[in-house]
Write a structure and sequence with these properties.
single chain; about 425 residues; TIM Barrel; 2 domains; nine-stranded mixed sheet; eight-stranded parallel barrel; 12 helices; about 30% helix; elongated; binds ligand LLP
Length: about 425
């Protein structure tokens, strides 16, 4: 079954007021389709849940960095969490205000730090003492003061896929919570650094909020220890947002309840709360549409060959991720148990294995659900496949927000 806002009307899959098959036919496939209304509503859930608590929501640009998506969120008042100069460039081009940008990541380059300081971003989430020293030296040369939060690693198991889990001792992220106070002491000696925040992100796609609560408790204790030692901590960045359901049996965690609980836990600590949700704002608001090219059977397997591939959506190949696959027209009776595969020359190029699904035939269109986050942004030109188009739906209308790449695009710069 598809997830809202994607719903069947008379056996035809719609989003908002638009029949998705109409898009598939006129835009061609593969094509990513996003619902503007869903993105807006999902952002609002975060912003509204904080209510009176001083806060700022920084949309994690990495989840979906299309300029139109950024513009839409900027118009709702969102800030932006970036991890590269390229993402900052996109935010600037989308008219996002620099003072609502936080810069995360373990490997910021000199050029990126300069660029960020020149635009006047809100703050850096710093991941090492060496980075702190670099930021200080650049800020000093530019005659600026850089606001920073140290990203702490609290040793909390996020219980998510190992590739997107970030809060354990062995991970490259953050500074050991036991060692970070010494780094704040060092930061106080730098004349162009204002260490005003603490940040913490333990992983992505968390369906259970218990690890987040555990990390929050540890970080609040740290905040109070730092303050007792004269470090004037003003903001707490709680990292990414909650996970989303990919399988029909998964329930969406309650963002509002989670944030209310966080606000209650932080009440009395006099902190501006910050959060960097990505997946949960855009993930369920998007699908990848694809056309069935062939059916093929062997002695042991049934294959549905589609025109999208791992270069368009790499999540199944990279994280063993599950994406629900549904037909745009429910015209075929019965189901089939099949592997859904793409044209790329790798056995790892599959979207599903032994999946019981609608009995789709060549020429039919399917939607790969919950593909609005970490979909297009992770697409590549592998096998010299042009990257797909992106479409934004609002009400009864839809428009291209990125055209399909051409063969000419494939060789640009060579
Ligand atoms: N803040 C930081 C510091 C992060 O590293 C991330 C995600 C976020 C915020 C946003 O987290 P979210 O709200 O989206 O869970 N490509 C992977 C996901 C990588 C997540 C990386 N960091 C996937 O397709 O599942």
């Amino acid at each position: 079954m598809p997830f809202p806002p994607f719903t069947y009307r008379n056996r035809n899959l719609f989003v908002e007021e638009v029949d998705l098959e109409e898009i598939a036919r006129s835009a061609g496939t593969p094509v990513y389709v996003y619902s503007a209304t869903a993105i807006r509503e999902r952002y609002r859930r975060y912003d509204d849940a904080f209510d009176e608590t001083p806060h700022e929501v920084f949309y994690a640009v990495k989840a979906n960095s299309n300029l139109s998506v950024l513009r839409l969120l900027a118009s709702e008042g969102a800030g932006f969490d970036i991890v590269s100069g390229g993402e900052l460039y996109r935010v600037m081009r989308a008219g996002g205000p620099a003072e609502k940008v936080v810069f995360s990541g373990v490997g910021k380059t000199r050029e990126e730090v300069e660029y960020a300081l020149s635009t006047g971003i809100h703050s850096f989430n710093c991941e090492s003492e060496a980075e702190l020293a670099l930021i200080d030296s650049i800020a000093s040369r530019m005659g600026k003061t850089a606001r920073i939060a140290m990203r702490v690693n609290p040793h909390v198991d996020a219980q998510t896929h190992p590739y997107i889990s970030t809060g354990l001792r062995d991970h490259k992220f953050g500074i050991d919570i036991a060692a970070v106070e010494a780094v704040y002491a060092r930061a106080a000696q730098f004349s162009h650094i204002a260490a005003e925040g603490v940040s913490c992100h333990i992983g992505s796609q968390l369906l259970d909020t218990a690890p987040l609560k555990e990390a929050l408790d540890a970080v609040l204790e740290l905040v109070e220890r730092l303050r007792a030692n004269g470090v004037p901590i003003r903001h707490l960045d709680l990292g990414g947002g909650l996970g989303v359901p990919y399988k029909p049996e998964q329930e969406e965690p309650d963002v509002t309840a989670h944030i209310q609980a966080v606000c209650e836990r932080c009440a009395g600590h006099d902190l501006k709360l910050m959060m960097e949700p990505g997946r949960s704002i855009v993930g369920p608001a998007g699908v990848l549409l694809s056309r069935v090219l062939y059916r093929k059977s062997t002695d042991t397997k049934e294959f549905v060959v589609v025109d999208a591939a791992m270069n368009d959506l790499i999540r199944p190949a990279l994280y063993q991720a599950y994406h629900e696959i549904v037909p745009l027209r429910q015209h075929m009776p019965g189901t089939v148990t099949a592997d859904v595969v793409g044209p790329v020359c790798e056995t790892g190029d599959f979207f599903a294995r032994d999946r019981e699904m609608a009995n789709v035939l060549p020429g039919d269109f399917v939607a790969l659900c919950t593909a609005g986050a970490y979909g297009f942004v992770q697409a590549s030109n592998y096998n010299s496949r042009p990257r797909p188009a992106e479409v934004l739906v609002e009400g009864a209308s839809w428009k291209f927000i990125r055209t399909r790449e051409t063969s000419e695009d494939l060789i640009r710069g060579e």
